[in-house]
Design brief:
Blueprint: E1 2-8, H1 14-23, E2 28-30, H2 31-37, H3 44-53, H4 66-74, H5 77-104, E3 109-113, E4 128-133, H6 136-147, H7 151-159, H8 164-168, E5 173-176, H9 181-199, H10 202-208, H11 210-240
Parallel strand pairs: 1-3, 1-4, 2-3, 4-5
Helix pairs in contact: 3-5, 6-7, 10-11
């Protein structure tokens, strides 16, 4: 099974691409959905959060008060790290089991929709990285329109994130969402055809004979790591000239 990492920047259109891929019948493992699932009432992660940050971050019905917790961690980097240390491992475990379920069901391709795919290092564990891109100015205009925010506020949010141009450097495939919806749909159609072609016939062997799948995954990840290191070395040499 081909595991694909899908990411982008705020207001670049990643969610739209994810929806289009789902419409093509590809399974989507959404990190944002899982992040909400792992802190539902009764989960170990929510119990840890209440222990670390106090019961004030819980509502009367036992659910997480995201606004109150956000106000705490937004101004305190150390507390934000503590929160991430609780939530991120729980989300990654859920992602692992979700991918495993896709494999068990005989899926040829599985899409990991992860906003922080690059920042969190998960790009190293997928077969291909797909980045949804648009220019910084278009990104800014879309964010202002979507949130009805000022240029200064929108710029501040963008500056707090890894620039989309840096994410593109990690991409195996770039979806340029600078144009119309029709153009985006055409690119997604081409992407689906390419992914299914890349999945080929070997996915059947991986499904019927798991050791083959494990060996194939190790080979793919090792080759990607080697190729990335070569690219990184080339960029460093070019920057010195």
């Amino acid at each position: 099974m081909l595991v694909i990492g899908l990411t982008g920047g705020i207001a670049t259109g990643k969610s739209t691409v994810s929806s289009l891929l789902r419409a093509h019948g590809l399974p989507i493992v959404d990190a944002d959905v899982l992040a909400r699932k792992v802190v539902e009432p009764g989960t170990p992660a929510l119990a840890q959060i209440a222990h670390v940050f106090g019961s004030d971050v819980l509502r009367a019905d036992g659910t997480l008060d995201r606004a109150r917790l956000g106000a705490i961690v937004f101004v305190d980097e150390e507390k934000r790290r503590k929160l991430n240390a609780i939530v991120h491992p729980a989300v990654r475990r859920e992602m692992f089991w979700s991918v495993l379920r896709c494999w068990w069901q005989g899926e040829r391709v599985c899409i990991l929709d992860v906003p922080l795919l690059i920042e969190g290092g998960l790009w190293k564990w997928v077969a291909k990285v797909v980045v949804v891109y648009c220019s910084a100015e278009i990104q800014l205009q879309r964010l202002m329109k979507r949130d009805n925010s000022s240029r200064a506020d929108a710029s501040s949010r963008l500056n707090a994130q890894l620039p989309i141009t840096e994410k593109v450097q990690y991409a195996d495939i770039v979806i340029d969402n600078s144009g119309s919806l029709q153009d985006l749909e055409r690119q997604v159609d081409q992407l689906v055809q390419r992914l299914l072609k890349d999945a080929g016939w070997s996915w059947r062997i991986s499904w019927l004979f798991p050791p083959w799948g494990v060996a194939s995954a190790i080979w793919t990840l090792s080759w990607r790591a080697l190729r990335r290191s070569r690219k990184s070395g080339s960029r460093k040499r070019s920057s010195r000239r």
